[in-house]
Specification:
Bound molecules: S-adenosylmethionine
Oligomer: single chain
Shape: globular
Helix content: 25-40%
CATH class of one domain: Alpha Beta
Pfam families: Methyltr_RsmB-F, Pre-PUA_NSUN2, PUA_NSUN2
Subcellular location: Nucleus
Number of helices: 29
Largest sheet: 10 strands, mixed
InterPro entries: MeTrfase_RsmB-F_NOP2_cat, MeTrfase_RsmB-F_NOP2_dom, Pre-PUA_NSUN2, PUA_NSUN2, RCMT, RCMT_NCL1, RsmB/NOL1/NOP2-like_CS, SAM-dependent_MTases_sf
Number of strands: 31
Radius of gyration: 29 Å
Family: Belongs to the class I-like SAM-binding methyltransferase superfamily. RsmB/NOP family.
GO molecular function, one term: tRNA (cytidine-5-)-methyltransferase activity
């Protein structure tokens, strides 16, 4: 039965469009899908021409189509997409259910390479139509192993506008539960092959202020293991400066020591996603409870936080860098008003026109004018903030929650700001949710002539740097609600006091005080930063309970054993492996990070940046009786399936065995198949090896009707007489379904037997107790149907 859910705005504690529980439990009858205030508010905003209004409202009342995206590394995604297109969709064409034709899934027209799909079928069809049931099963398993991401179509858009490349430093400010984070990670890993992962030089920091939701984020992003990922748990509006030694360590002689020190140490980002908490009224089709609870005051209240998050992002962006600001709200107060206020508050940024970036995407331009309401009863009569304030009794003025930035800029200003470059998506245009996107760019360095005749980056001027620093002081250091938008700084491209032609890396004021320890030599690998006393024990970091990461020395016995056992090549980045505990003891897992993540961990206090995870697990200690029987020593680690793509490029031939397709079938069918049951040459090859962890390269081939089209690389463990495929049970089932078209695993057989037993037991109970079975009869459901419903509850997890 439907549970009551909280009614807070999206991204607040009670749930969001990205919260699966929230999405599923909210049930409301169609006749209750109306809200006079909502209609009157949005009519006042003129969001749509009159003739579209009915279609808009009607679509808002219809459930959303099911949409999903083929995820993972690009090559693997293309392959799986081909399977959907060439194997599944043809079977789903021409399905008739209860006398009605059911349409097969279709590719979303604007998603690159056709990797996103949508289909519109009732749950009953998914449950009862054999063709759709099979497809649904396939989707469930592929979702669990991370190859498919069920995600609302519009939610796939922001990362596409960010255009992340593998070398980019990327920040996802409000990232949980992480569907967009996954897309950003995929873009960082665009150079991965089907079997092995590249190690991008770039970085993704995925942040969310909600501790519990960061765990969803970690779970979601584990599907694409990345040495370039960090997850933090901070309020994005006061995200601290991250310190890394800059690539530039030499500055012109006249650079002030304080400026040089700062510029050496602040990480600036190429791409930032601000998918901010919002009122979420664009998600009504998925969360129909919003019809009942919608209030314009949610948007009014969130405006200030949204603005501060966007402004913080602007301060952390490199010149030439890009921010995507997005909400799933249609409310201009949360959208254009935030963007306009942010642009007015900080010089050097502009809205980018990307209206033709995704051919096939139907959208509308941003609004240039709107009418904020000053009460939930929809009072939009005040044309300006000044009019509104004047209308208040003097004693009330100080406590008013309305800000000047809730109101639109003048028509002239709106034109200069190019607010029409914002992108609005309305549900009736392409059968989606409602959405808003703005793409902001920090203007690239403009070369301007200086008095000395050398070429200078004019916007590096002291004036504009001061503008940024001024904002940092007002906003970041006082993490309270803004009562005001900082005044616009005059744009001055002429440097009054040109300093130097420095990289963007460090042009910002750190958000929290730090001192540079000048005594430490440049080459030291020790952190060069020390924090002011007590700083890490204050505020958010005081209660941070996670363990720190500790890098292990390249000559540590464990890493040496891994190098030996896996025949790791000389270029294996042993110095980038770390463990998750303060002293480096009780080691169970080894993590791997790339150089920039290593640099951040080394130079920043983990509690201050509330570091939840970094990099990816690659090796795990082989524990349990199986390991003891196999004689595994304390330094005997196995390569983990999740980290295998990352370490595969370094693993040497001694740790690799080649097998055919038949061997894969045996390994999937039984938990511990005997070595003697395999055919040669695989059998002799593996029997000749000592017990331990190996990597098997399964070669393409045919087996009955099944085809392995591309090499598959998986970890195994060899014991005295048997082998084990080191994948978890669900991953084995997904693999089996993908390759053999059916679940041939022991787990599937056991589950089927258990289900049969349960059905038999339930039937016996029903016969024994007629009274107990009566409510079921009343509800009109049979046990089979309930069991089916449970299956559907185990639905593909949604973003
Ligand atoms: C719209 S959701 C983000 C969805 C996410 N980008 C995705 O695609 O899966 C907004 C998120 O903002 C988080 N949030 C709310 N206030 C925040 C703040 N001050 N700083 C950082 N995150 C915040 C919420 O916990 C929520 O997870």
């Amino acid at each position: 039965m439907a549970k009551k859910k909280g009614k807070g705005p999206k991204g607040q504690k009670s749930g969001s469009r990205d919260d699966p529980a929230w999405a599923r439990t909210d049930v409301i009858e169609r006749e209750h899908m109306q809200n006079d205030r909502l209609e009157s508010y949005y009519k006042a905003q003129n969001i749509l021409p009159d003739e579209e209004w009915d279609a808009f409202l009607e679509t808002m009342r219809n459930p959303l189509p099911i949409t999903f995206r083929v995820a993972g590394s690009r090559q693997a995604a293309r392959l799986l997409n081909d399977t959907i297109k060439d194997v599944h969709v043809p079977h789903l064409g021409g399905v008739v259910f209860e006398g009605e034709a059911v349409s097969p899934p279709q590719q979303i027209p604007w998603y690159p390479e056709g990797l996103a799909w949508q289909f519109n079928v009732a749950k009953k069809v998914l449950r009862k139509s054999p063709e759709f049931k099979k497809f649904h099963n396939f989707l469930v398993f592929e979702t669990e192993v991370g190859n498919i991401s069920r995600q609302e179509a519009v939610s796939m858009l922001p990362p596409l506008f960010l255009e992340v490349e593998p070398h980019h430093r990327v920040m996802d400010m409000c990232a949980a539960p992480g569907s967009k984070t996954a897309q950003l990670l995929e873009a960082l890993h665009a150079h991965d092959t089907i079997t092995s992962s590249s190690i991008p030089s770039g970085l993704l920091i995925a942040n969310d202020s909600d501790y519990k939701r960061t765990h969803l984020l970690i779970h979601q992003s584990a599907r694409l293991p990345s040495p370039a990922l960090m997850v933090t748990n901070l309020d994005a509006s006061i995200f601290p400066a991250i310190k890394i030694p800059s690539e530039q360590t030499h500055f012109p002689a006249d650079t002030k020591a304080r400026v040089a020190a700062k510029r050496q140490y602040q990480l600036m980002f190429d791409r930032i996603l601000c998918d901010v908490p919002c009122s979420g009224d664009g998600t009504m089709r998925k969360n129909p409870g919003i019809w009942k609870h919608w209030s314009p005051m949610d948007g009014n209240g969130l405006h200030s936080l949204q603005l501060r998050i966007l402004q913080r992002a602007m301060r952390m962006l490199k010149k030439g860098g890009r921010i995507v600001y997005s909400t799933c709200s249609l409310n201009p107060v949360e959208n254009e008003a935030v963007v306009a206020a942010a642009l007015k508050s900080m010089p050097g940024f502009e809205l980018v026109d990307m209206s033709n970036h995704l051919p096939g995407l139907i959208h509308r331009p941003g609004l240039t004018s709107w009418k904020p309401t000053v009460s939930k009863e929809i009072n939009t009569t005040f044309a300006t903030y000044q009019d509104y304030i004047q209308s208040l009794d003097e004693t009330q003025r100080g406590s008013s929650k309305m800000l000047e930035s809730h109101w639109p800029p003048s028509a002239d200003e709106a034109e200069k700001l190019h607010l029409t470059r914002c992108i609005r998506i309305y549900p009736h245009l392409q059968d989606t949710g409602g959405f808003f996107i703005a793409i902001l760019q920090k203007k690239p360095p403009a070369k301007a002539a200086t008095a000395s005749g050398t070429s200078k980056d004019a916007s590096e001027s002291k004036r504009s740097a001061d503008a940024v620093e001024g904002l940092d002081k007002s906003d970041v250091k006082k993490p309270k609600l803004d009562s005001d938008v900082p005044p616009e700084e005059p744009q001055n491209d002429e440097a009054e006091e040109p300093e130097d032609d420095l990289p963007e890396e460090a042009a910002d004021e750190p958000a929290s005080p730090m001192e540079v320890d000048q005594a430490k030599p440049e080459t030291s690998t020790e952190p060069k930063i020390r924090f002011k006393k007590g700083k890490t024990a204050e505020g958010a970091s005081a209660h941070f309970k996670e363990n720190p990461y500790t890098f292990i020395a390249p000559d540590d016995p464990i890493i040496k054993a891994c190098i030996e056992n896996f025949d790791l090549s000389a270029d294996f980045p042993a110095s980038n492996t770390l463990v998750r505990n303060p002293a480096g003891d009780t080691v169970r897992s080894l993590y791997m990070v790339n150089d920039i993540v290593k640099s951040i961990i080394t130079h920043n206090d983990f509690a201050r940046i509330r570091l939840m995870t970094a990099g990816t697990k690659v090796f795990g200690k082989q524990e349990g009786t199986e390991a003891k029987r196999a004689g595994a020593s304390d330094t005997h680690f196995r390569v983990l399936a999740e980290g295998l793509p990352v370490v595969l490029p370094y693993i040497g031939e001694r740790a690799i065995v080649y097998a055919d397709f038949a061997a894969l079938r045996i390994l999937l069918e039984a938990y511990y198949p005997l070595t003697s049951g395999f055919a040669d040459p695989f059998r002799s090859m593996i029997e000749a090896k000592p017990n331990g962890s190996y990597v098997v390269r399964f070669q393409p081939g045919h087996l009955g009707n099944a085809t392995l089209a591309h090499e598959l690389v998986l970890p195994i463990w060899k014991s005295n007489v048997s082998l084990t495929l080191m994948l978890d049970k669900r991953a084995k089932s997904a693999l089996s379904l993908r390759i053999f078209g059916e679940d041939i695993t022991t787990m599937a057989r056991e589950a089927a037997a258990k289900k049969m037993q349960q059905k038999q037991a339930a039937a016996a109970d029903a016969i024994a107790s007629a009274a107990a079975s009566a409510p079921d009869a009343e509800s009109g459901k049979d046990k089979d149907e309930e069991a089916d419903e449970e299956d559907v509850q185990e639905d593909i997890v949604e973003d």
